[in-house]
Amino acid sequence: MGNPQEISMQAAHEAIQEGLRQAFPVLSVMAYESLKERVACPAAFLNLAALEPGDDVGTEQLAVRIRWELHLVMHFKAANVNLEICALVGAVSKWLHGNRFGLPAHPAEFVGAYPDEWKPEQRAYEEWRIEFEQRVYLGASAWTDEGVIPQTVLVSWSPRVGVDYKPEYTEVTDAELPTV
Fold this sequence. Notes:
Blueprint: H1 9-23, E1 28-31, E2 43-53, E3 62-75, H2 81-96, E4 109-115, E5 125-138, E6 153-155, E7 170-172
């Protein structure tokens, strides 16, 4: 990925929600909503489930795996609700997998989809939960992409290092490293 660009959690939420709205205009897309009131269905609720450590890439950014939960909800009186929600779960899962949502991030990875009782007190809805992960880098990179990129790499062996020993240095190429 080169030098990872900064991503904020706010930007990630907004990008995923907007992508869902564009790809599935029939969905009412929200984050962290509850089913306390009537909801225009079908609906999708995006929630952050976990932040787990990712692989440090040496940029002083926080490398994380974001685990998302996307709850898909349909009213139980919808025609063929079980088939319709299964079709929607499949289509949304396919759309999520490999998607970057317009962010400078790794592609999303589908984890699984499961029947859900997100809010058991709301029996008027058929619900499924889709889980997916995405690796991102939070915060600004310490590397600014300024300066000169070395064109030649030279090596030597201690104690024969420094300016006085420059003629004894060996150039590193695409071949193997020099040996003593």
